[in-house]
Design goal:
Elements (H helix, E strand, L loop, with lengths): L1 E4 L6 H4 L4 E4 L5 H7 L5 E3 L5 H6 L5 E3 L5 H10 L2
């Protein structure tokens, strides 16, 4: 799995399990646009609707700043 990470964190647990982690910080907008269609997962704060439409391989997104209250609210909306 190819993961784009726009977050400073220790990604060794992912790498040690065979995942390719690409550091997105410091990439230019053009570099990101070229990369987006080729990622399977992303760890990021935000992504535009245009980018998500281009992310044809994307299978999962992790937003490391979402709080429990937001998750609980989403859960209540789907009950």
């Amino acid at each position: 799995m190819r993961v784009l990470a726009n977050w400073d964190f220790d990604f060794e647990p992912l790498r040690s399990r065979g995942h390719e982690v690409i550091a997105g910080r410091g990439l230019t907008p053009a570099e990101l646009r070229r990369l987006i269609p080729h990622i399977d997962g992303e760890i990021s704060f935000s992504r535009s609707a245009e980018d998500l439409e281009r992310a044809v391989r994307l299978r999962g997104v992790v937003c490391p700043v979402i709080g429990y209250d937001a998750i609980a609210e989403i859960g209540r909306a789907h009950v």
